[in-house]
Specification:
- The structure holds three protein chains of three kinds.
- Chain A is mainly alpha-helical.
- Chain A has twelve helices and two strands, in the order αααααββααααααα.
- Chain A has one domain.
- Chain A has a two-stranded antiparallel sheet with strand order 1-2.
- In chain A, α1 crosses α7, α1 runs antiparallel to α9 and α1 packs across α10.
- Chain B is an all-alpha fold.
- Chain B folds into two domains: 213 residues, no CATH class; 92 residues, no CATH class.
- Chain B is built from 14 helices and four strands.
- In chain B, the strands form two sheets. Chain B has a two-stranded antiparallel ribbon with strand order 1-4.
- In chain B, β2 and β3 form a beta hairpin.
- In chain B, α4 crosses α10 and α11 runs parallel beside α14.
- In chain C, the strands form two sheets. Chain C has a six-stranded mixed β-sheet with strand order 6-7-8-3-9-10, with helices on both faces. A four-stranded antiparallel β-sheet of chain C has the order 2-1-4-5, covered by helices on one side.
- The termini of chain C are far apart.
- Classes of the chains: A mainly alpha, B mainly alpha, C alpha/beta.
- Chains in contact: A-B, A-C, B-C.
- Chains A and C meet through α7 and α8 of A and α2 and α3 of C.
Chain lengths: 289, 355, 269
C-alpha cells in the first residue's frame, strides 16, 4: 500500500511537470528543456514571496502563482518568439541555454543552501495516514492539485474558444493565422500555462522536501513521461507519468536504489525503439530537423 | 574547398579547384601559422600552455561532433558519453590489467566504434528531436555505467592513471603533451577534411539535405548514418582516452550533461557546417571561463563572487549561447566570412533589388 | 466604375529580393462583385493573392513596388492577422481545414473582430452550407473534398469579412460540386453584399460566375474585361478554354509562343 502511495505521489509530480512539456510542444512544436530550471524558479519564487508576505501564507501562494505565470510570458516575449520559424535544433538549444542561464542566475541570487519555503509560510508538513500507508500533507496536495490541473486543462482545451484556438494553432499555424488567431498570443499563453504548472510542481516539491539542486533533475526525469505518452497528448502525459513513476518506484524497491536516476531514461529508450511518437501522440513524420 | 576570391584569380585546372590551399597568400599565411604553432610552447607560460593543450584536446571531440551534426545532420546531445566511454576504457584497462598506452588507445577506439554503433542504431528510425532524445538517454546510461564501476570498485573519487610511457620516456611534460596533442589534432583535421571531400562526406551531406533524395540517388542511407556515428564516436573516444591520460584521473562527474552541451555550443557558436567553425568554437568555449574570470577581476567583483564563480560561468555561458542563437546563427564563422566579404567587396558593393 | 473595395496599383512582388514574380499588376475589385483572376500555372495568381492577404513574408517575398489598398487603406506588407482584422478572409488552396478538430471546432476557432456580430457570422456558415450542420461532430480530416471546401468557405465566412479571397476553388473537385459552390458564392454575394476575388484555373466555370475577369500571364495582366466578351475572345478560347478554332497540329500552345503562333497561322491559314 505504501508503494502505491509513493507511486501516486511521484506520478503526480511527473504528470504536473510533463503537462508543461506537452503544452509547449503541442502548441508551438518546440521542446522546452528549460522546464526543470523554470520549476526551480517557481519554488524559489514561493520562498521569496513567503518571506515577503510573512504572516499571510495565502497571499504568498497567490503571488507566487501569478509570478510563475508572468515568468512564462516573459520567457516567450523576451526569447522564444525570436526562435519561431528557426530550425528545431536552434529552438531546443535556445531552451537549453536558457536553462543554463537560469541555473547560474538562481545560484547567484539565492545561494546554494537548501531552503524550506513551508517553514517560511508557517505551515507544517503533516504526515497523514491512509489505509495503512503514510502520505505527507504536501504529497496529498500534489495528487489533488494535479488532478485539478488536468481537469481544468482538458476543459479549457476542448470546451473554450481559446483552448480550441490553441489546438488549432498547434496543428496548422498558417491556417490559424489566416483565421485571425494571433500566434504570438497563443504561444505566450502556452508558455505561461506551462511555467505555471511547472512552478506549481516545484513549489509543492519544495514544500515536501526543500529546494535543492536535485529539483532540476526531477524536471528532466519527467520528460520521458511526456514522451512515453506522446509529446502532444495531455492524456498521454498522465499515463506516461504513471508508467515512469511505477517503473522507478518498483525498481528502487526490488532491484537497486542507485538506479533511480536512469530508470526514466531506460523507459524513454524503450519507447523510442518501439513507438517513437508515444502511446497517444500523433504519428508525425519524424522529419522535423 | 575555399570560397572564390576577388577578381583577378582564376582556376584553370581541376587540381587547382580541388586543392586545399589556393593562392600563394594562403600558403604563406599557413606557413607562418605553422611556425607560430611550433614555437608557441617555447615562448608561452605554463598557464597559456595548459590552455592550449585544453583547446587542442577539445578540438578533436568538437571536429568529430561537427562531422556528425554539422555535416551528416544527425543531432547528438550525448557526446560527453563518448568521452566517458574512452576515458573509462582507459581507466579500467589500466587499473585492472595494468595495460600500457599502446593497448588502451586502440581499445578506446574500438569501444568508441562499438558504442557509436549503438548510438547510431536509433538514427535509422528517428530523426531530429527524437534522435536527440535518444542520444541524451544513451549518454545518461553510459555515464551511469561508469559511475557503477567507480562505486563497485571503491574508486568513489575517481580512477587514477599513470602518465603514458613510450619505451622508458614518461610523458608528463606539458610541452611534450602539446606536441602530441597538436599532432593528434592536426591528424583529426586532415582526416576529417579528407573524409569530407570523398564519397563518405558527400553521402553525409546528401543525407543531411534530404534523405529521400539521397536514397533515390543510390546512396545507402543506413550505411551513411551509421558510418557518421561510428567515425565520430571513435574519434571522440580516442579524445576521451587522451583526456584521461592528460588529466591522470577519470571520474564520472567530469562527463556531465553540461560537458555535452559545451561541445554542442562549441559547434553552434563556431558555426555549423564548417571545420573551421569547430576549431573557432572550441577556442571560444575553452577560453570563455577564463575570460569571465578576467572580466570579473577587472570589475572588482572577484572577491565577492569567488565562492560562486561557477554559477557566474554558467549564467554567462547560457547568455552568450542565447545571444549567438538569436543574433548570429551562423556563428563565428559567419562573422569571419562577413568581415572577409566586406573587405573583399567594398569597392563593388551593390544594393539588392527592391527597397 | 463603382467604388473599389480592393485596388491594386502596379504591384510588384519579388522573391528573395531577386526574382520578380508579379510585375506591375493593377486590379480593381468593386464592392459587391465577383472578380475572377485567371491564368495558367506559374502566372503569379497565387502570389498576388498572398500579397493581398499578407502571407508572402513566409516565402521571403515582399511587395517591392506599387500599392494595395483596401477601403482606401494601404495594406501591403502587413501581418496576416492585421489583414484579417480589417475584413479580408482567405480560403486557401491547400491545408484549408484543421484536420484534428471537429467541424464545429473549426468554425469556433475563427477569431471574429466583432463579438456581437460574431454569432451572426458563424450562423452564416451553417446557413449557406446545411450539409455542414449535419457533420458538426465529425473530425475535419475525415471529410470529403467537397465538404472540406465548404468548411473552408464557411470558416472564412465566420470571420465576418467584407472581401473573400478564394484560391483555386475547383482544385480536386468534380465540376458539378464546383458549380454548386459558385452558386452559393453568388447567393452570398447577393445576400450579404460580399465581394469575392476568385483565383481560378478552370476558366470556363469562373467566367460563368464572375462579373469581371482578369487574365494573368508571366506576372502581368494581359487581358481584362467583361466575362462574356472574354468567353468569345479567340485567345482565351485557344489557351484557357481549349475550345478555339484549333491549332494546326492539335497541340495547345503556350501563350508565350503567341507571336510565332499567330505568324504561323497567317502563313498557313
Amino acid at each position: 500500500m505504501q508503494l502505491a502511495v509513493n507511486i501516486a505521489v511521484l506520478a503526480a509530480i511527473y504528470a504536473l511537470i510533463a503537462c508543461g512539456y506537452v503544452l509547449i510542444y503541442r502548441v508551438s512544436r518546440v521542446l522546452s528543456l528549460a522546464h526543470g530550471e523554470l520549476m526551480m524558479l517557481g519554488a524559489y519564487g514561493l520562498a521569496a514571496t513567503a518571506s515577503l508576505f510573512a504572516g499571510n501564507p495565502l497571499v504568498a501562494i497567490a503571488a507566487s502563482a501569478v509570478l510563475a505565470l508572468a515568468v512564462g510570458f516573459l520567457v516567450y516575449g523576451l526569447l522564444m518568439w525570436r526562435m519561431t520559424g528557426e530550425s528545431v535544433l536552434a529552438a531546443v538549444l535556445a531552451t537549453i541555454a536558457l536553462g543554463i542561464l537560469l541555473r547560474g542566475a538562481m545560484i547567484l541570487a539565492f545561494g546554494t543552501q537548501t531552503q524550506y519555503p513551508l517553514q517560511q509560510l508557517g505551515w507544517a508538513n503533516a504526515s497523514i495516514a491512509i489505509g495503512g500507508a503514510r502520505i505527507s500533507g504536501a504529497g496529498l496536495v500534489l495528487v489533488a492539485g494535479t488532478a485539478l490541473v488536468y481537469g481544468a486543462l482538458f476543459l479549457f482545451l476542448h470546451a473554450s474558444r481559446w483552448g480550441i484556438r490553441m489546438r488549432a494553432a498547434g496543428q496548422n499555424p498558417l491556417l490559424a493565422a489566416q483565421r485571425g488567431i494571433r500566434l504570438h498570443g497563443v504561444y505566450a499563453l502556452a508558455w505561461g500555462l506551462a511555467t505555471f504548472t511547472g512552478g506549481m510542481a516545484g513549489m509543492l516539491i519544495a514544500c515536501d522536501a526543500g529546494i535543492e539542486a536535485t529539483l532540476v533533475t526531477i524536471g528532466l526525469k519527467a520528460f520521458p513521461a511526456a514522451l512515453v505518452g506522446g509529446l502532444d497528448s495531455l492524456l498521454g502525459a498522465l499515463v506516461g507519468a504513471w508508467i515512469v513513476a511505477g517503473a522507478e518506484v518498483l525498481i528502487i524497491q526490488y532491484v537497486d536504489p542507485l538506479l533511480s536516476d536512469v530508470v526514466p531514461f531506460f523507459v524513454l529508450l524503450a519507447m523510442l525503439v518501439i513507438r517513437p511518437w508515444g502511446l497517444f501522440g500523433t504519428c508525425e513524420e519524424l522529419d522535423r530537423v | 574547398m575555399s570560397t572564390p576570391r576577388a577578381s583577378g584569380y582564376f582556376r584553370t585546372r581541376y587540381e587547382h579547384d580541388q586543392a586545399l590551399l589556393d593562392t600563394r597568400a594562403q600558403k604563406a599565411w599557413l606557413a607562418a601559422f605553422c611556425i607560430a604553432l611550433a614555437a608557441f610552447p617555447f615562448v608561452a607560460g605554463a598557464f597559456a600552455l595548459d590552455l592550449a593543450n585544453q583547446v587542442l584536446l577539445m578540438s578533436i571531440g568538437a571536429i568529430a561532433l561537427m562531422l556528425l551534426t554539422g555535416y551528416a545532420g544527425q543531432i547528438s546531445l550525448g557526446h560527453a558519453g563518448l568521452l566517458a566511454a574512452g576515458a573509462f576504457t582507459t581507466g579500467i584497462l589500466f587499473k585492472e590489467a595494468g595495460a600500457s598506452f599502446w593497448v588502451t588507445l586502440p581499445s578506446s577506439a574500438a569501444v568508441g566504434a562499438l558504442i557509436g554503433l549503438v548510438f547510431g542504431l536509433p538514427s535509422l528510425r528517428l530523426r531530429g528531436l527524437y534522435l536527440a532524445m535518444s542520444t541524451l538517454a544513451l549518454h545518461f546510461l553510459v555515464v551511469q555505467a561508469g559511475q557503477e564501476y567507480e562505486t563497485r570498485r571503491g574508486h568513489s573519487t575517481g580512477v587514477l592513471i599513470d602518465p603514458p610511457s613510450l619505451g622508458g620516456w614518461v610523458m608528463n611534460d606539458p610541452r611534450a603533451w602539446y606536441f602530441v596533442l597538436l599532432a593528434a589534432s592536426i591528424a583529426t583535421l586532415l582526416f576529417s577534411l579528407n573524409l569530407l571531400r570523398g564519397r563518405t562526406g558527400r553521402a553525409w551531406r546528401a543525407i543531411h539535405g534530404r534523405e529521400a533524395v539521397a536514397a533515390a540517388l543510390g546512396i545507402d542511407v543506413r550505411a551513411a548514418k551509421l558510418s557518421a556515428f561510428v567515425v565520430s564516436c571513435t574519434l571522440t573516444a580516442v579524445a576521451g582516452c587522451l583526456f584521461a591520460y592528460y588529466r591522470g584521473f577519470v571520474s564520472a562527474e567530469a562527463f556531465s550533461l553540461f560537458v555535452a552541451i559545451q561541445y554542442v555550443a562549441a559547434i553552434i557558436i563556431g558555426g555549423i557546417g564548417s571545420i573551421l567553425g569547430a576549431v573557432l568554437g572550441t577556442v571560444f568555449v575553452v577560453l570563455f571561463p577564463y575570460g569571465i574570470e578576467a572580466l570579473m577581476s577587472a570589475l572588482g567583483l572577484s572577491e565577492r563572487l569567488s565562492s560562486v564563480v561557477f554559477a557566474v560561468n554558467y549564467a554567462a555561458f547560457g547568455l552568450v549561447m542565447i545571444l549567438f542563437l538569436v543574433f548570429e546563427p551562423q556563428g563565428l564563422v559567419g562573422i569571419w566570412r562577413r568581415v572577409q566579404a566586406w573587405f573583399l567587396l567594398w569597392p563593388f558593393k551593390q544594393k539588392p533589388v527592391g527597397k | 466604375m463603382s467604388e473599389a473595395l480592393l485596388q491594386l496599383e502596379k504591384v510588384e512582388v519579388a522573391y528573395h529580393r531577386v526574382i520578380t514574380a508579379v510585375q506591375g499588376v493593377s486590379l480593381h475589385v468593386p464592392k459587391g462583385s465577383i472578380v475572377a483572376l485567371l491564368g495558367t500555372n506559374g502566372a503569379g495568381k497565387t502570389t498576388t493573392l498572398r500579397a493581398i492577404s499578407g502571407f508572402i513574408g513566409l516565402d521571403d517575398a515582399r511587395v517591392t513596388d506599387g500599392a494595395i489598398s483596401f477601403r482606401g487603406e494601404r495594406i501591403e506588407n502587413r501581418a496576416p492577422h492585421e489583414v484579417t482584422a480589417r475584413g479580408i478572409a482567405l480560403v486557401p488552396e491547400r491545408s484549408k481545414v484543421f484536420e484534428n478538430l471537429t467541424v464545429q471546432e473549426n468554425i469556433e476557432a475563427v477569431v471574429q473582430k466583432d463579438r456581437a456580430a460574431g454569432a451572426r457570422h458563424s450562423d452564416a456558415a451553417w446557413e449557406y452550407f446545411p450539409a455542414l450542420a449535419r457533420l458538426r461532430r465529425r473530425d475535419a480530416g475525415y471529410l470529403s473534398g467537397g465538404e472540406r471546401q465548404m468548411l473552408a468557405i464557411g470558416a472564412a465566412l465566420a470571420c465576418g469579412p467584407e472581401l473573400l479571397l478564394v484560391d483555386e476553388l475547383s482544385q480536386g473537385l468534380a465540376p458539378l460540386i464546383v458549380r454548386d459552390l459558385l452558386q452559393r458564392l453568388q447567393e452570398i454575394r447577393k445576400d450579404l453584399g460580399m465581394t469575392v476575388l476568385l483565383v481560378e484555373q478552370n476558366a470556363a466555370l469562373a467566367l460563368e460566375a464572375a462579373d469581371h475577369a482578369y487574365v494573368m500571364e508571366n506576372g502581368r495582366i494581359v487581358l481584362d474585361g467583361d466575362p462574356q466578351r472574354l468567353l468569345a475572345h479567340q485567345d482565351v478560347q485557344e489557351f484557357y478554354l481549349g475550345t478555339g478554332a484549333g491549332s494546326r497540329d492539335g497541340m495547345r500552345r503556350n501563350y508565350r509562343d503567341v507571336k510565332q503562333y499567330r505568324r504561323s497561322r497567317r502563313w498557313y491559314g
